[in-house]
Amino acid sequence: MPTQNGLAYRPSTHWISSIDQALANRLLTQLKQTERSLLLDQAELVELDNAQVLVRAGQPLSHAFFPTNCMISLLANPSKARCLEVGQIGFEGMLGASSALGVTASAFDAVVTGAGQAWRMPLAALRMQCLHSRFLSVLMVRYLYTELGQMGALAACGQFHVLEQRLARLLLMCQDRMRVPDLEVTHESLARVMGVRRASVTLLAGLFQSRHLIHHRRGHMVVADRAGLLAAACTCYAQDLAFYEQVMSEKWPP
């Protein structure tokens, strides 16, 4: 079984016949077929488990991950007792863009907060491809810029918006990245990435359920009314999506 930093990765055995896994990650879809094939020939589709640590802050990342239906959180961890989510990666992005461009150490902890599948490939192979492909290098830079924008939005959201708006936004972001209405999350895990007390999340989850926005049970939250959650969320959610589309959909240089 392949390992990284002593951690095991399970090759994926769950193929969804209606989805082309080579096109299940949005960054990979932007590559020409020949370029995408060159990368995926050196990659493997693996299963990532909840709470799996992919890299710690300050450590080098040896592999890049392109999620297809899982979620990876970037966590700032100033103390062992508390942490805060500063970034969230799903099928729209990747873990390892900065490393592919030559940065050695990870700035944050990268932890799986939604189990699922991802393409895993050696960073050495990705770096080599970046050296030979201007298109791929620009794609990495543009995606990093969207990550920077997301981090700034999350910081502002945490400072200026109420917890109810932040939780609604977080659930919408989780659903976008997991591509399912049934989210395998706990009150504890949500509180941890939001940097708040578990009791606060439990109280709000009960409020959302009373308004029929979600149904929650142990270890799961089902989004029952997405439109209602959108109305409850702050404007950061829509602005974040619009910023990503603006940056990633710009006309490429010749």
Quick structural summary:
With 254 residues, this protein is an alpha+beta fold. It is 43% helix and 21% strand. The protein contains 10 helices and 13 strands.
The total domain count is: 2
CATH class of the largest domain: Mainly Beta
Q: What strand line-up does the widest sheet have?
A: 3-4-10-6
Biggest sheet descriptor:
4 strands, antiparallel
Helix content: 40-55%
Question: What keywords describe this structure?
Answer:
disordered N terminus; four-stranded antiparallel beta sheet; Arc Repressor Mutant, subunit A; 2 domains; 254 residues; single chain; alpha+beta; 21% strand; Jelly Rolls
Structure write-up:
- The structure is a single chain.
- The chain is α+β, with helices and mostly antiparallel strands and 254 residues long.
- The protein folds into 2 domains: 3-158, Jelly Rolls, CATH 2.60.120.10; 162-233, Arc Repressor Mutant, subunit A (Orthogonal Bundle), CATH 1.10.10.10.
- Helices cover 43% and strands 21% of the residues.
- The chain has 10 helices and 13 strands.
- The chain has helices at 26-29, 33-40, 97-100, 123-132, 134-160, 163-178, 187-194, 198-210, 226-232, 236-248, and strands spanning 3-4, 7-8, 10-11, 44-48, 53-55, 63-67, 71-76, 84-89, 109-114, 116-122, 182-183, 214-217, 220-223.
- The strands form 4 sheets. It has a 4-stranded antiparallel β-sheet with strand order 3-4-10-6. Strands 5-9-7-8 form a 4-stranded antiparallel β-sheet. Strands 11-13-12 form a 3-stranded antiparallel β-sheet.
- The longest helix is centred in the middle third of the chain and has 27 residues, at 134-160.
- It is globular, with a radius of gyration of 18 Å.
- The relative contact order is 0.14.
- Mean pLDDT is 89; it is low at 1-7 and 12-18.
